[in-house]
Amino acid sequence: MTTHASRFLPFLTGIILAFGSSFMASSAALASSPEPACRQTHITTLPLKETGYYLTTVAQIHGHSLSMIVDTGSEGSLLTPDAITHLHLTPNEEDATIISGPDGRGHVVPTIQLATITLGQLTYHHPVLPLGTLPGFPAIQPPVLGLIGMDLLGHYDLDLDLPHHRLSLWDIHTGSLLCRQPPFWSTPGQRLVAQRIRNRFFIPFTLDGQKGLALIDSGARSHIISRDFVHRLGITKEQLDRDPGGTSAGIGDREHRYHWHRFNRLTLGGQTQLHPVLTVTSLHEQADMLLGADWLIHHQLWLSAGPEGAVFIHAP
């Protein structure tokens, strides 16, 4: 299984985790009876904390509470090395995996098998997580000691309601046209054209007349646009060098340059924004843009785990 842990300050770009793992999830809402034609089971609702566009929730591991980044742009989850001391864990040095950062260079890290990890009313049994550093995270309590990716979240429909600081997980099966269809909102939402690739969700956008694909990435703090995409717009390296920006650390403490550039027109999710300022950097991703928390905080999204990978949007 290949997993991607996503981006922070203003992002943490493309960590790739290559490892094998298996786990089971249990919840008081899940039943072992034969699968009904229609099932719309609310599994749990996680409170979300937004701190400087970092999105976190509280998890329970071996009786300890910790904050974890909620990252829909990451194929996999991870724990930080500080979790070893805080949670009194022992890593498996022999069962190592490779984490490669935005430059594509690999870093070998150990893994650890947990007895359980609990999110709200949902408990995962025997997950195997790699250990990796997070270049940036907020100083909050309980401390941030890891990241929750789509290997844990992607089995469920996600009602990502950042305007109201909550994430609800639903177990949905609609085996009949007579079944009630999500999203289960009090007012209708708009269905977006979308793709679901390896549990992650992508929607189209148009920036200054050029079409691209955006990854819905709650681990990113802002809109982040690929440098290659920007060059296809005719914007040169010299033009970007005149824009304000800075550097951010990635895996292996390697610095990565970014710029803030003002564009003319961005159309995304059925809405058009004039003169947006976007973060431009190199992305080693399937997407041309990372759609981060600065956008999500103004929208409610429903991300379907069904085969169609449907995405619905609602602006409260």
TrEMBL record:
Keywords: Signal. It comes from the Bacteria. InterPro entries: Peptidase_aspartic_dom_sf (IPR021109), Retropepsin-like_bacterial (IPR034122). Residues 1-31 form the signal peptide. SUPFAM superfamilies: Acid proteases. Coiled coil: none annotated. This is Peptidase A2 domain-containing protein.
